[in-house]
Fold this protein.
Amino acid sequence: MGGFSNFAISFSIISILTGAVTLYGDGLAKGGPAEMAFGWPLVALFTLAVTASMAELSSAFPTSGGMYHWAAML
């Protein structure tokens, strides 16, 4: 596998845009417009809480190893 092919596969797996575009139709079909209007902001709020927790941990324990080291310390 060449460098560009490896990048393309990695980008398609990690890309937020790819996941949002492919799952948008499924969420709209199964949940309707209410799920899009209330579900996505609610999930974004919970994701923001996880992000704030990780930011707090990274400022309290600034070491290499990230979450593995934090879990060992906690």
User: Anything to note?
Assistant: Residues 3-73 form one domain.
